[in-house]
Amino acid sequence: MPSRTWTPPFPLDLGAVLGPLRRGPGDPSFSTEGGIWFAANTPCGPGTLHIRRTDAIEAEAWGDGGLWLLDGLPALLGADDPLDEFVAHHPIVAEARRQRPGLRLGATGRVWDLLFASILEQKVTGKEAFRTWRELGRRFGEPAPGPLPLKVPPTPHRLLALQDWEWHQCGLDGARRRTLINAAQVAHRLEKAAEMRSRELLEKVPGIGVWTSAEVAQRSWGDPDAVSVGDYHVAKNVGWALTGKPVDDDGMMELLEPYTPQRHRAVRYLEAAGMQRPRRAPRFSPRDYRRF
């Protein structure tokens, strides 16, 4: 079992940096039991990484991809994040940054696992997406190496072998299924997006637009400027935080313009500060496509 100790030369909030990798409660590839664990597909095969904070960062890894995950530990925890270049143009953003000096943007260096999860989250409630992620992971993900009963997210090859009834049992509608199949068919090429830092490469796949590519870029290469345009909540929350009223995507991008090329970071600070508009309308009811 290989291990590594790393001392970050900056304040580090481990939970805040790695939290975006978790896809809801019950994520079969993620655990917070005695630290943070996650299972992933890597260029060397499946691997599991366990990270905990002592005086330094202690990490252990299992599986064929274990050494690859350990090599990427500093980048995963924000070592390559250009945080020092960020300028807060609004008092509320400046205060959020002051209160959260350990909030950084990490980079996994991989695309498939993140793209898979982000496609499932297209145009549905988080509850729907997380349920489908759990079902697909538990049924078709391989057991993760290591001591915890985690699952490695299903590979493109495994998803392409699924039958219609298996998709249906996991609650996936036709539109997201088609997009996921499109992505799985060219997944080996899409891994270059992380190296090239190219959202445009991801958007060449039918069904993948600016929202999905931004969600992947934020996590895969820690893109500080990748705003989730098209999200149901983000623009409204940003507008409410900065102006006292919700705005649409165009209004949000206008408000965030001074933060270019770190607009996503400004959004992350607002989210970390809990800046959400009051919700007066009823919540969307999650749909269960297994009933259709």
Topology:
Blueprint: E1 3-6, H1 14-18, E2 30-31, E3 36-42, E4 45-53, E5 57-62, H2 66-71, H3 73-76, H4 91-99, H5 112-120, H6 126-140, E6 142-143, E7 151-152, H7 156-160, H8 164-169, H9 174-185, H10 187-190, H11 192-196, H12 199-202, H13 210-220, H14 234-243, H15 249-256, H16 263-272
Antiparallel strand pairs: 1-5, 2-3, 3-4, 4-5, 6-7
Notes on the protein architecture:
- The protein has 292 residues and is an alpha+beta fold.
- It contains 16 helices and seven strands.
- It has a five-stranded antiparallel beta sheet.
- Helix 14 packs across helix 15 (249-256).
- The model has no long low-confidence stretch (mean pLDDT 94).
Which spans have pLDDT < 50 for at least 5 consecutive residues? none
Order of strands, main sheet, comes to 1-5-4-3-2
General form: globular
* Largest beta-sheet details: 5 strands, antiparallel
Helix content: 40-55%
**Count of helices?**
16
Strand count: 7
Beta-strand residue percentage: 5-15%
What is the N-to-C order of secondary-structure elements (H for helix, E for strand)?
EHEEEEHHHHHEEHHHHHHHHHH
The structural class is: alpha+beta
Mean pLDDT: 94
| Amino- and carboxy-terminal Cα gap | 46 Å
C-alpha Rg (nearest Å): 19 Å
Enzyme class: hydrolase
Keywords: DNA damage, DNA repair
Protein name: DNA-3-methyladenine glycosylase II
Domain HhH-GPD: 120-275
